């Protein structure tokens, strides 16, 4: 029996591999009535024979570690969608993975959480940069930004 091999959909995830540092803005919401600035650091690499991108995320505010997360990104062959499993220091059960599509330079995931619907967007900007944004919606119609940042690949 021949083992499966990663395809072009898996190789596309490679574009997010590497070490990235970005300036972030946390928008007003349940966690703070005022916008907050932070620095994000992502270390991501392809694992499990190239089928999954595994990332480690750290956020610092005022030089202090304020939030951590792990992401596992893959491809759901049956649903023909990208998947994002997310675990972080909020400690919530991640539930079902966010599912997404990649069109041009934009990879967008959506899911439903106890807080409502979530949208997570990665936009490749070229020259070793990408923009990440996260928004929440109680009904899937009206979206409120939670955070965004532009990240630069480190040498």
Topology of this protein?
Blueprint: H1 8-13, E1 18-26, E2 36-47, E3 52-61, E4 64-76, E5 81-88, E6 98-103, E7 106-113, E8 116-126, E9 129-137, E10 144-153
Antiparallel strand pairs: 1-2, 1-10, 2-3, 3-4, 4-5, 5-6, 6-7, 7-8, 8-9, 9-10
The CATH topology turns out to be Lipocalin
Enumerate the spans where pLDDT stays under 50 for 5 or more consecutive residues: none
Number of helices: 1
Tally of structural domains: 1
End-to-end separation? 40 Å
Task: Summarize the entry for a quick read.
The chain has 155 residues and is mainly β. It has one helix and ten strands. The protein has one helix at residues 8-13; strands at residues 18-26, 36-47, 52-61, 64-76, 81-88, 98-103, 106-113, 116-126, 129-137, 144-153.
What can you tell me about this protein's structure?
This protein is mostly beta strands and 155 residues long. It has a single domain, classed as Lipocalin (Beta Barrel). The protein has one helix and ten strands; from the N terminus they run H-E-E-E-E-E-E-E-E-E-E. It has one helix spanning 8-13, and strands at residues 18-26, 36-47, 52-61, 64-76, 81-88, 98-103, 106-113, 116-126, 129-137, 144-153. Strands 1-2-3-4-5-6-7-8-9-10 form a ten-stranded antiparallel beta barrel. The longest helix is centred in the first third of the chain and has 6 residues, at 8-13.
Keywords:
mainly beta, Lipocalin, 10-stranded antiparallel β-barrel, globular
């Amino acid at each position: 029996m021949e083992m499966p091999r990663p395809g072009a959909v898996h190789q596309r995830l490679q574009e997010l591999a590497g070490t990235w540092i970005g300036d972030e803005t946390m928008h007003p919401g349940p966690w703070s009535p005022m916008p907050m600035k932070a620095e994000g650091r992502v270390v991501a690499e392809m694992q499990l024979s190239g089928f999954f991108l595994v990332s480690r995320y750290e956020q610092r505010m005022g030089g202090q570690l304020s939030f951590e997360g792990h992401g596992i990104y893959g491809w759901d062959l049956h649903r023909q969608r990208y998947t994002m499993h997310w675990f972080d220091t909020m400690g919530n059960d991640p539930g079902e993975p966010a599912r997404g599509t990649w069109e041009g330079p934009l990879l967008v995931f959506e899911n439903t959480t106890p807080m409502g619907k979530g949208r997570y967007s990665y936009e490749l900007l070229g020259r070793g940069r990408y923009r990440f944004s996260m928004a929440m919606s109680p009904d899937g119609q009206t979206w409120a930004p939670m955070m965004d940042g532009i990240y630069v690949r480190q040498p």
